[in-house]
Amino acid sequence: MAFDTCTAPSSTRMSAWRSAGPYGAAAVYIGGRNRGCAQPQLTASWVRSVSAGGWKLVPIYVGAQPPCQDSGNPERLSASTAASLGASDGADAVADAEALGMRASSAVYLDMESYDTGDAACVSAVLTYIQAWDKALHARGYWAGFYGFTSSSAAAVAHAEGVTPDLPDALWYARYDGADSTTSGFPFSSGLWTGHRRGHQYQVGAKETYGGVTLTVDRDAWDAPVAVTS
């Protein structure tokens, strides 16, 4: 089991949850111009501390978002900028991971929020961005993961898999069905992202208390690459 929450909790709170709770992994937002939360705790020292305490970490990078998305994100891609932005954001994601002590062979997950996948031009631009981002991570020895929604952003990637090159190595899909599994109810072809390359965000906004510490988190079933920190 894994959890994600917008701002990384303090190492003391993480320790309480590790000793008393069911979770073994935590997702952390390491960078991207569209990252929505401040991260006062998220330092290389924090990574060392929580890793030594037994946590596995799932790095998330909130990159450029689609031009057809209805949001106020400061960084948007377009057909003309998708390739260059993907390459620069991919390099930035690796720099952010390295600064936190997340070494080569780590997986970093690109966060792509919901958008109108009925817009073919928009889908094409997003796939170009993802390809460039993935190639930038691969060139530096990192796994390229992807976070998206089964109704839109993840579906577009799944439909392109096997047709479009340089797509993500691992898929973290959001489907709020309450199923703590990466196999039961997998919404795409059963042959996709096999071999321990799936994460499933199955519930959001769960308020939980372990070791006297209460956090509001999203719940994830996890069977995919994580950060290499040791």
Automatic annotation (TrEMBL):
Top-level taxon of the source organism: Bacteria
Organism classification: Bacteria, Bacillati, Actinomycetota, Actinomycetes, Kitasatosporales
Source species: Actinacidiphila polyblastidii
Keywords, alphabetical: Hydrolase
UniProt GO molecular function: hydrolase activity
Matching InterPro entries: GH (IPR017853), Rv2525c-like_Glyco_Hydro-like (IPR015020)
Protein name: Glycoside hydrolase domain-containing protein
Domain Rv2525c-like glycoside hydrolase-like: 16-222
